[in-house]
Amino acid sequence: MAVIEVRNLHKRYGETVAVDDVSFSVERGEIFGILGPNGAGKTTTVECIEGLRSPDGGTVRVLGFEPREDQLRQLVGAQLQESALPEKLEVREALELYASFYRNPADPDALLAELGMTGHQHKPYKKLSGGQKQRLSIALALIGNPEIAVLDELTTGLDPQARRDTWDLVEAIRDRGVTVVLVTHFMAEAERLCDRIAVIDSGRVVAVDTPGGLVDRVSADTTLRFRPSAPFDDHLLTDLPEVREVRRHNSQVTVTGSGNLLHAVAAVLARHQIVAADLRVEQASLDDAFVALTGRAFDN
Amino acid sequence: MTGYLTLEIKRMLRTPRFVLFAIALPTLLYLLQSGLYKDESVPGTDVKYKAYLLCGLAAYGAFVSALSTGIRIAAERSGGWQAQLRLTPLSPKAYLLSKVVVSMIVALPAPIIVAMAGGFIENVHLSAGAWVQLTLGTWLASLPFAVLGVLLGLLASADSVQIYTAGVQLGFGFLSGLLIPLTGFPSWVASAVKAIPSYWLADIGHGALLGNNNTALAVLVLGAWTVALSALVVFSYRREAALA
């Protein structure tokens, strides 16, 4: 069942068209990614879903409601791209304030513990690190026990460790049964977290699919690179049905093909007692998918 | 609403600098001017200047304090805090009303402290009723300015709001004779300033001293300003959402 329906969304700021024609639907219980380079119209799209902006055209329905209907505020938790709490507001004060807004709030203590913020509950907002601020905004998005959480550029500006921790949190949110809409311009983040992704470029949806489905659209090719421990004849590999091409560069061999390429090549090499040193397997990535879908490199 | 209001009051207590200025300036101006006028009376009355000055400066302190919330609102709009609150179930009514209530709390100390300067330092003697009308009456009558502060906060940017607020403070302060008495000015000036709400704010105190019966009219004029400004506040808040 779709919890969010976006149809032919259009939004312009003056002369600039931010969202040209965006349609997608989000199913209950999934992590739905909105992926695209900076300026693609991702944030404008979710701000229309949140009711912060009024669309110039198209329709948006969230749990059957118009985005600006009051009932929806109880059901949707949102974290803004730039969260801006008052500087002196303490973590706990912010959570208690938000809890006072909702009919059925989560327990602030439990939420603080779950997000690893118990030790920081009396810190003012301005003294929090980037990762702590993001965790607080996740907590604020979840305190009302929402059905849908909208998270916009959650991990921008975080160091790699904090980013991975945040990813774990997002998965934990989904595991609570909350539908998550995740806006991101990080390929790796979308690939790791999302059940489905809408790829947006220049205000338009270029594809909606699973991460794997998007990659498969581009190419099913796999590339292997390795240094053989002993010389061998190219025919050993080119005779395999999985192999399309074998190239050599100095001591390195590059094998391109499809299907279960790695298994086929490894089996032949083993039979001839050749060890493949520095073996690397490369498959098409979401980056390649983006280039193929939009005709240009993913450019941030 | 109570959760938000409680937090707003806490936040206001953490940054008392706006209020301190709004108390210090009228108190100092009062002491300075009452020293200049010594024991002179306002022409045509037996009211001493040192008592008469209290009304304008108590009014000035109250309305300058009441306006200060606008500066915070403009900052919250540009910083994104207001947008974040719009995402929550906090209703626009609760948000705006809380801001007005906080403005009124902020406006309370100034008229009381100015009055205390009059009573304890300059030995002004008034009846208990007159003191109450001068302090609490002036405070209650500063309601339209609390609403005006919210309106400025909704219309001005974080950069420009200080200038607009200072403009309103000084413009209203001088033109309506709060900072310096208008008693020496030509009568047409005295008539023209009756269009300004702060004139009527000072008149609440003047009514207590002179025993004139303008107070009902003052309440009526200030009430009308409150209604008109409130309508503009609601309109501005909705328009910002509609244009987003």
UniProtKB/TrEMBL annotation, chain A:
SMART domains: AAA. Residues 4-227 form the ABC transporter domain. GO terms for molecular function: ATP binding; ATP hydrolysis activity. Pfam families: ABC_tran (PF00005). One of its GO terms (biological process) is response to antibiotic. The keyword ATP-binding applies. It is found in: Cell membrane. It is a peripheral membrane protein. Keywords: Antibiotic resistance, ATP-binding, Cell membrane, Membrane, Nucleotide-binding, Translocase, Transport. It comes from the Bacteria. GO terms for cellular component: plasma membrane. This is ABC-2 type transport system ATP-binding protein.
UniProtKB/TrEMBL annotation, chain B:
Pfam families: ABC2_membrane. It is a multi-pass membrane protein. Residues 17-240 form the ABC transmembrane type-2 domain. The chain crosses the membrane at residues 18-37, 49-75, 96-121, 136-158, 170-196, 216-237. It is found in: Cell membrane; Membrane. InterPro entries: ABC2_TM (IPR013525), ABC2_TM_bact-type (IPR047817), ABC_2_transport (IPR000412), Nod_factor_ABC_transporter (IPR051784). PROSITE patterns: ABC_TM2. GO terms for cellular component: ATP-binding cassette (ABC) transporter complex. One of its GO terms (biological process) is response to antibiotic. Belongs to the ABC-2 integral membrane protein family. This is Transport permease protein.
